[in-house]
Amino acid sequence: MPGQRKKKTRKTSKPSRRRWLIRVLLVLLAALGVYLGYLNYLINERFEGDAWALPSRVFARPLELYPGLALNAQALKYELELSSYLEVERAPAPGQYRRLGASLELHARPFDFGDDEQPARTVQVFFDDGRVDGLVDSVSGSKLALFRLPPVVLGSYYPRSGEDRLILGETQVPQRLVDTLIAVEDRRFHDHFGVSPQDILRALWVNLRAGKTVQGGSTLTQQLAKNMFLTPERTLLRKINEAFMALLLEARFSKRAILAAYINEVFLLQQNRVAIHGFERASRMLFRRSVDHLEPQHIALLVGMVKGPTRYNPLTRVEAALARRNLVLEVMLEQGVIEPGEYELAVAKPLGVVERLPGVNPFPAYLDLVKRQLRANYANDELDGRGLRVFTAFDPLLQQSLETGLRRGLARFEQPELQAAVVIADYLSGEVRALVGDRVTDYPGFNRALMAQRPIGSLIKPLLLYSLLQQGNTLASTVVDEPIRIKQSDGKIWEPRNYDQQLHGRMTLFRAFVHSYNLPFVHLGVDGGLELLADNLARMRLLKHDIVYPSILLGTTAMSAFEAAQMFQVIANNGYFAPLTSIRRVSDAHNRVLERRPLDSYALFDQATMIQVQRAMIGVGESGTARYLGERFGGRSIAGKTGTTNAARDSWFAGFTRRLLGVVWLGRDDNLPINLTGSTGALRVWADIMEAQGFESFRLTPDDSLEWRSIDAVDGGIAQKSCADGVLLPFPNDRVPRRRSACR
After folding, report:
1. Overall average pLDDT of the 218-227 stretch
2. Which residues form the catalytic set?
3. 538 in helix, strand or coil?
4. Could you give the domains of the chain?
5. Main-chain dihedrals φ then ψ at residue 533, nearest 5 degrees
6. What is the reported pTM?
7. Lowest-confidence region among 158-172, 399-413, 612-626, 722-736
8. Closest CA to 335 of 504, 515, 181
9. What does the alpha-carbon distance between residue 73 and residue 532 come to, in Å, rounded to a whole number?
10. Are 419 and 446 in contact (CB under 8 A)?
11. Local structure of residue 658 (DSSP, 8 states)
12. How far apart are CA 651 and CA 330, in angstroms?
């Protein structure tokens, strides 16, 4: 009996143990399923279907070429190279150009402008005396009246993250780059399913023999999983996650898609604190050319850097980078990627990289403005779409003039801590054409043009002058330049001074304005002008405080350079308000234009009164604080205003020519004095910028409600042409001066 009981116990224990094991196995499988589901979720979040092939792109304005256009061959060459066109000596292929005597022949890439789908086309551009002399289709030989060059790409990014990348689609990756990458990093790429057991075992054996890690067994798919989703730490858990993710990637995506993602994701360079990912971005930064123009030695260097971006950095580790490149060239030869003749030529060439890495984006301040205005003017759900095409008003040639002039202007001051912000806009349309937010124009840091709030000083006086003219004053009205004491609402006494600390007696409002004397404007301001000034600032949405102090009459209100440009846009445009914008239109991947929140453009101020202000601003350059402009650009009419703040901490100049408005600010981030006035600082930089650009004179708009009279700028009476202080000024028909001047 005892034996029978023992036998019975054994029979019942086996099914129980089996059920227990099955339950444990099911739990483990469920946990694994949940975990794989989580990993798959991470992949979904990052890949988002076709996200790698359809980034959002920001374009500059297209360059329209036509006979008579003010453009020389060097300027066209600059714009072509921004679009990574390569100069060649033979007949150009798409994305290439060549010099032919005094002309350039370029093979433009195809481009869909939205209103016109332009095919690839070869065009010869002739130049004469700084202008386009003619356009000829190289194939048909026919003359062209107009040709639009596809616009420069300012950046590619993902709206949700704001990440700035240059992305290659699956069909845009050169085959030689693919073949080299596979030959060097993963020769079994097309045979495995994300993990290669043979390579893992081989690497394990090599590492055991060496006594340390000298070789990895990761496939390209595993490397992609690590780069996109995991940390670089070497742990068993990370390797397991890497393997699972590689299997999931291979199960869901094609080999071509995985390769494209790897080529766009791999880390290759470090620019200050910014990590440079992707072959296209690295190629443009190191060689100033796109990947479709890379030669074998360039491809070998980039692929070689994958193994160790720091160890094989061609800028800091030249010998190591050269040795690594030549080793990759040997592999390319062994695997049949290049021919022996190509190998001999490539291995003999230097690295051919730039001396200093440029900024990740050459125009970071402008791209920052675009992103801000996208978020402000378009619905979030629209911006989340992939493949957006953002067309802007950015003018690369004007930006080049801005940067050239800024460098030249800042060099004269020898103040390395001096910072700058510049905005250039078309005041008729309100389009921002060029912009910088740092003296180092490609530095992607604090954007002073948009964010630095600084007192504007006498830049306020054109709007204050408008307010005083609203009261019934004219440019010939006489004002007094004498001391004044004002008790403010907080009980403090304000005693303003002229910048030169002198008193100048009685004079016309025009003369007080062009010389930027403070006291006459304070006297008139406290007699009603202050309230009108505050109201006019509010109408432009530039009034910053509910309580208005008299000191605002002298520009204690703070603005960014962008806000100051908005104020002067209205002044230059005869009182017509057009919101400053960088964006012309945004379309989706199918060229459907996205709906934009409406921008209010309307007549804000009286045209005739604003023309009087413009005439006074022209006088600033003729005989006032900006007379340097008259000396430098004699014969050309410029309207402008200088601005200086207390202790010479800020130097401002705002000026406009025909269609172009430019605002320049100079100062220090620590707010210490720079010992530069608006006249000796920002004005000189503005002049350097505009000289580099070239400009036409500003012209006042004819207005029948105004009469022009020559008056004495001192006493305001009607003057003879022979008067020493005679000046021709506009007046409302019912306020023309009648008194004659006993002028000198």
Report:
1. 77
2. 185, 458
3. helix
4. 62-150 (3.30.2060.10), 165-347 (1.10.3810.10), 457-556 (3.40.710.10), 705-744 (no CATH)
5. -60, -45
6. 0.85
7. 158-172
8. 181
9. 51
10. no
11. S
12. 59
